[in-house]
Structure formats: structure tokens, C-alpha cells
Amino acid sequence: MSPAPAKPILLSAVQPSNRLTIGNYLGALKNWVRLQEDHDCLFFAVDLHTITVRQDPKELREQTYRAIATYIAAGVDPANATLFVQSHVPEHAELAWVLTCFSYMGELNRMTQFKDKSAKQGTNIPAGLFIYPTLMAADILLYGTQRVPVGEDQKQHLELTRDVAIRMNNLYGGDLFVVPEPYIPPVGARIMSLQDPGAKMSKSDPDPNSAVYLNDTDDQIRKKLKRAVTDSGSEVTYEDSKPGVKNLLAIQAAITGKPIPEIVASYAGKMYGHLKVDTAEIVVQELSPVRTRAEEILKDRAHLEKILQAGAERARERARKTLERVYDRIGFIPGRFR
To answer: Could you report the per-residue pLDDT of 259-269, keeping only the tens digit for each?
Structure first.
């Protein structure tokens, strides 16, 4: 009897820089639960990435714990997927330096996220913002990742990862790195701000009404969606000229799995107020059990630590093999892995 074919390797992560939002949940976590069944998945919290901007140490630590607890509460199974924190696997930082040396200034300077974030920093721009994409490339290439779920704002970083992997494969052998492919999630991958539906929902938005956070109470969720910016007119339609309405319909579709035309048809003759109330109740029903379960997990910190330790050990075993191969090919003296 022939062995079962290996599952494709898929990797994804979220920054624990602030509380996770429904955008993170629908764009990432909800998809992760489904993907873990037919992929070899690695899911982690990218705490190294967060310090490209200043963080409060206590807050960062707590948000990292909360992020992992929320992954589990949403349905990620630590026995089925490799679940860990980025800084627990030092190979990420080690490979990032190697990849930085094989990346070009022009490539990094073209990154849209660097331009956007550095513009907000003023004159003292952290170097980490500039080389952030090479750390992301290391995250991906360490594990022979074949598929990477990406939104529009991360596609450029994945393209750089592919370019650097191909460049090093040409220099040091075609089997050095697996060249990853993008996985584009279905509807709901890009949830917009409730107060500015022309912008993506952000964990760091200073307006608390712009985002539904995964630890918001039911009443907070209802109030935020009631205040959500809609559009001129009153007919519920899914079109670019109505970004606020479009966003609420996308949230419903991502949670319920119903086709958007079917949802739109159900609002024939109804007003925006009906859409807001219904969306709020759908969100409450979806997030309430996740919030409750996450709080239970956080209370048992010792158990959570065991999950993180086991996940880091599994990740390091895989990462070590890749880094050993890279170090050997580029000419480092053996010894690091003996």
C-alpha cells in the first residue's frame, strides 16, 4: 500500500501588536480552521515583526498570549497544526540576516508598506521597517512553505520572497528553497474600517469605533455596527459606489457562507438600519463563543505555555534543517548544528 501523499505546507501569522479584530478573524483565523484539515499548517504570532515600532513590553507580552489563545478558541487545533511564537524560534532571525544580504536596496525601497509606514515615522525611521520583508521571507522559506495566504497588502512581500528564493537557488542549487505560491482567501479576506470603509480595518486605528475587536462585549459589537458608516441612498446593493454597505454585506457573507446576491435579495424593500442590526447579531453569534473560550484558555497560563513550548520544538526541528542546509551551501564552517 503506497503512503498517503504529503499535505501541502501552508504558513500564516498575525502581528500581536494590538487586539485582534474581526478583520483578522475573517481574513485569517476562520480560514486557518478550514485549511488545517488538508494542509500541513504552521500558524504563529510574529512578535519580532512588532518591534519595528515601539511597543509597551507588558502589553506586547499579554497581546501575544491573547493572540495564541484566540487562535485556539477560533478552532485551530495545536495537535493538528504547528502553533508557536516567532521569537521562540531563533532560526527566523538567523535566516533573515542571510536573506538581507541577498536582497537589494532597490527591491526593499519599492515596498509600498515601507513607504507608507516610514512616512508616519518622520525623520527617525527604524531600519527594521526597511528590512521587515526579509524577516517575512525567512518566516516563509524556513519551512519549505508551498502556500501562503496573502491579502493585497502582503502580495508585494511574497513576490520579494519568491525573487530572493529563486536568486539563491540559482546561486547555490535549485533545491535550496521551495519557492512559495500565494493562496488568495475567499470573500471576507479584506474587511474595511467601520468608520472609513475606503480603508482596511486596522488593529492600530486610533478610533475604537472603526474596528470590532475579538474581545469586545456583545453590547460593544452592536453599538459599533449600529454606528457604522454606510452611504447615500437607502437601497441595499453590493457595489463599489457603496463601500460601507458593501463592507457589511462582505462580513455577513464571510460568516454565514451565503452568496452575496442571496444576502442582497433578502434586503429588498428594507433600509440600511435592517442591514446594520442583522449584521450585528450575526457577528455577536459568531464571536461570543470565541471570546468566551479565549478567556478560559488565558486563565490556564501553564497549559498555554506547554502548547507554545511543544509548537516551538516542532517548528525548530524543521527550521534547523533548512538553516543547516543554507549555512552549508553559502560556505559557513560546520559546527552550529552538530
So the answer is: 999 999 999 98
